[in-house]
Structures
1.
Amino acid sequence: MQQSMSYRQIGKLALPVIAAQSVVLINGMIDLAFIAPYGTEAIAAVSIANALCAVLFNFWEGFRLGTTVLVADALAGNNAQKATAVVSSGLFLAAIISVLFTAFAPLVSHWVYLLAGNEAMQYHGTEYLMVWLWSLPFTLFSYVLTGLFRGLKDTTTPLYATLVICLFNVFFDYLLVYGGFGVPSLGVKGAAWGTLFASLAGFSILILLTVKKPLTSPYLHFKQPFFKQIPEYVALAVDVGLNTGSTLLALLIFVCIVKPLGPAALAVHQITLQVFNLAYLPAVGFLITASIIVPQLLNPSHKRLLIPTVSRICQMSFGVVLITGGLLFAFSSTVSSFFSPADKQVAAQAAQTMRLVCAGQLFSAIYMVLRGALTSCKDTRFIVYEGWISGYLIFLPLAYLLAIKLGYGIYGGYMAFVAWCVTDCCALAFRFFRQQRLP
C-alpha cells in the first residue's frame, strides 16, 4: 500500500456492514411486531428478555471484532498460520461458552422472571428467554466466522447470512406465533423458537460459504495447534466486550435514573432510543472499516499512511453521519409524531431529545473510527478505562444532576448524553494522534 485508501475503497468496506447492522435492527423489531397482539404483559416480558440478550450480545462482540482485528493483523504480516489459529481459538472459546449457556439457560430464565414478580410475565417470558439463550451458540460461532470474512476484507458475504436470518425469522414467527399453514400456534414462545431456527439457518449458510469460498476455506484447519493463540485472543475479546457491554449497561442504568420522571419521560426515551439506534449505524460501519484497514498500516514501511488514512475514514464517517443526522434533525417533529401520534407532549419532548442525539452522533462518528483504530493498535485497555470514566463518572452522574436535581427532566438527561459523546471523542482523539506522533 503506497497511498492512503480512497473514499470509494472505504465505502466498499463500510456500506455492507452498515446494511448488515440495519437488518439486525429490523430483525430485533420482528418479534415485537408478532407478539404485540398478545398484550402489554407479553410485550413487557419479551422486552426484559431482549434487554438481557442485548447486553450479552454486546459483551460477546469481542468475538467478532477481536477476530476481525487479529485476522487482519496476521494477514498484514503474511502470517496465515496465525490467522488460522485465531479462527480456531475463537471457535473453541465459543464452544465452551455455548455449552455453559445452554446448560444454565433454564435456571437463568427462571430466576430472571421470578425477580420480575409478575405471573403473567413469567408465563410469557420464562420459556421465551430460555430458547433465546439456546440460540446463543449459533450467534457466537457466526461472530467468529463473520470476523474472519471481515479480517480478509470481505464485508459483503456475512450480509447474506444476516439477510437469511431476517427472512427466516419472519417466516418462522408467522408459522409458530400465529400458527400459519396449519402449524399449531405456540404463542409468545413461538417467536423465540423462530429466532432459534432462523439463527441456525443463518449460521448454516455462513459456515457453508466459509467452507466453499477459496478466500476463507484455507483458515479452517482444526488440527493445527492453536492454544498458544488463546491468551491474545481472550485479552482482546474481553476488552472489546467490556467496552461495548458496559456502554449498553450505562444506557440501562440511565433508564433507572429517569424512571422517577414518570411514564411520559420513559416514552420519550424509548422513542429517542430508536432514533439513536438508527443514527448509530453508519458509525459502526466505519469502526469495522478502521479495524480492517489499520493493521496493514502498522508496518514501519506503511506507518506514514496511518494518520492520513484514519483521518480520511473520520472525514467520511463524519460526512455520512452529518447527512443522516441532519435529515433526522430536520424531520425530528415528524418522526416523533409518528411514534407518538396520540400524546403531543411526548412527541414534542422526543423531538427535542432527538435533536440532541443527532448532535451527539457527530462526535460519535469520529469516536467510533478512532476506537476501531486504537483496537487495531491493541490499545484496548485504554478504551475500556476511558469508557468507564466517561460513562459512569461523567454521563450517569451528570444525567442525574441535570434530569433530577436541577429539574431539566429527560432533556437534561440527554444533555448529559451529548457531554458523554464529546468526552469520548476528545479522549480517543488525544490518545490516538498523540501516540502516532511520538517518535
2.
Amino acid sequence: MVLAELTSWRTRWRVYEYVRNSLWIVPFLCVVLAVALGLVLPTVDKHANTTIGITFGADAARSVLGAIAGGMITFTGFVFSILLLAVQFGSSQFSPRLLRRFLRDPSTKAALGIFMATFIYALAVLRVVGTSSDAAFVPSNSVSVAVILLLLSMVLFLRLITRTTQGLRVAAVVGELGRDARRIVDRVYPEPAASSDSESDPALALPGPVRTVEYQGKPGVVQSVDARSLIERARAAGAVIELVPRFGDLLADGFVLFRVHGDGGVIDDQWLRGTVATGDERTMRQDPAFAFRLLADISIKALSPSVNDPTTSVQALDQIELLLRQVGGRRLTPGTGRDDSGTVRFCYQAPSWEDYLRLALNETRHYGEGSVQVMRRLRALLDNLREAVPESRRPPVDAELALLDSAAIRVFSDHGDQLAAAASDRQGLGGTPAPGHVPPPSAAAGLLPDPHVHRDIGEHAAEPGQPLRPPGMS
C-alpha cells in the first residue's frame, strides 16, 4: 500500500508542484554545482598551461576572492529583502492568491541561485590560494571564473529588478494572468460552440450497480485529476467513473470522492484515490474558473474603500471580457471523458455558462455599483458579449444587464448620474458613445426619465416608457 502511494499519479503531481513552487531548489542546485566547481577547477588549474583571463598574484587573488565572497553574501541578503517587500506589496495590492505566481518566477530562482553560487565558489577557491604543496600556486583560471560569476550576478540583478518592478504593474499582472487563462481555456474547451448549444449532453446511461469511494488523507482542495488513466481503467472494467467534487472543492476524510458505476469492484479504491491531486490552494491547470476568481479578486480589491482605484478594476474587466468571449464561444457541456470508441467512461461537474458569468461579474457589479466608471465598463462588456455569444447564451447576459440597470436606479438618485451610468464605455470614462448608437433592447431597460429634471438634460431626455439615452446617444 505504501509502495502504491509512493508511485501513484497523485505523488508525482505533488512532487511536480512542490518543485515548481519551491524557491530553494534551484539555489540549492546552484550551490552544489558551485561546490563541485570549487573543488575541481583548482585541480585542473595545476595541470593547465594556459590562462583564460587575468593572471593573479597570491595577494591579489585573496583580495579578489575575499571581496567577492563578503560582498555577495551581503548583497544576497539585500536582494532577498527587496523581493520580500515586492511580494508583500503584490499580494496585498492585487490578491493573496497570486503569491504562488510570484514564487514560480524563474528569474527570481536563477538570480538567487547565481548569487549564492558565486559566494560559495569564491570561498571554495580561496582555500587553495597559496596553501597547497606549492605555496606560490595561484589558480588564476579559477579566480577568473569567480570574476565571471560576479559579472553574471550583476546582469541577473538588473534583470531581476527590471522584471520585479515591471511585473508589479497592473497591466503586466492582469495581462499575464489573462494569457495563461486563455491557454487553459483552449486546452479544456477545444470545441467551438454550436449556434444552438444547449449546454447539456443527453442523459448518460450509467451502468449499475454503483459504489462509492471516500477520500482519505489530509484536508485539501481538488487541484487536478488524472483523467486519462481513469478513462483507460474504466474502459478495461466496462465501467463509468464519476468524480463527485468539483475542481476547487474542499475534501476531508469521509467525503465521497468517486461513484463507480458497473465495475463489479475490480477497480482498486486506493488506486482511484491516487488519481486525484489535492493541495492547499486551487490551480488553473484543469480549472479555468480559478482564472476568473483571480481576475475578480483583483477587480474587487481595487474597489475596496481602502484602495478606491476603479481604473484597476476596469483593467481587470478588460481581461475578463476577453476570457468571457473565449469561453462563450466554446462548447461547455458537462464534463465527460470518452474512450476511443466514443463511450463515456469518466464524468465530473463542470461550470456552466451562467456560472462563469456570475463568477466573473457579480462581485464587481456589487462592489462597484457606486462607481460610474465601473458601471459604464460593465455595460460595454455585456453589450459586446451579447453580440459575440450564440443566441442560446444571451438570456443570462440580458439578466446581468437588467441587474446592472437595477443597480443604477438604486444607487444614483440624480437623473444625470443615472444617464452617465447607463452609457456603454469600453474605457469606463472618456470614451463617449458615437452618435446614433442604440444599445440592445435589454440595455438600460427600466431606466425611466425623471420629468422634473428634463430641462437639465435637454434633448437627451427620453419619452416615457423608453430607455434612457446617455448624452451623445440618439
3.
Amino acid sequence: MTDQDSPITRCPRLGCDIAFSYCLKERDPLPCGRILACWENRLPVATLLKGRLSEEEWNKAFQEPLRDRLSTILDLAGKAKKK
C-alpha cells in the first residue's frame, strides 16, 4: 500500500492528516500504538495486523506506553534533518 492509495485520517498525536500506510510503519517496523483506536471504525485493522505481526510484535506495539505529541514531533524532526 502506498501513500497515494492509502486512506487518510486525522492523527491525534501529530495533529494533521495521515495516511494509513504511515500508521502501519510509524515505529518502524511496528505500527503506531494508536492505530487500533484511530482506524477500527473504518478498516478491519486488528485482523490485518494479527496477520502481519508476531505475538511478540503485537505485545510490543500495543502494551508499551506511547510517547506524547512533542516527543513524537521532535523525533520526526530529527529523522527528517538526517535525510
4.
Amino acid sequence: MGSTSQMGAALWLQSRQAHGIFGHMPPDILIGTASWSDPEFVRDWYPKGLPARERLRFYAEQFQMVELNSSFYGIPDLRQVDQWIHVTP
C-alpha cells in the first residue's frame, strides 16, 4: 500500500476520472493558498457574510489551485472529494 499522500492523490484522480473532468495538467505555474478555510484567511479575504458552505466555490473562482493537506490527517472520504469537485470549476 502506498503513502497517505499517494492514496489521497489516487482518490482525487479516481474521482476526477469518474466524473469525466480530468484533463492534462497545463505547463503553467498555478497560484493558490494552503487553505480555503483558515480563520485569518476567512476574516481578511472573503466577502463579509459569505456562508462557510460557499467559501470553496468562491475560492475556486479566484485561484487555480488549493493545497489540500487533509490527507495528512486521514484519507478523505470519496463523498467529500466528490463534493469538492462539484463546487469547483
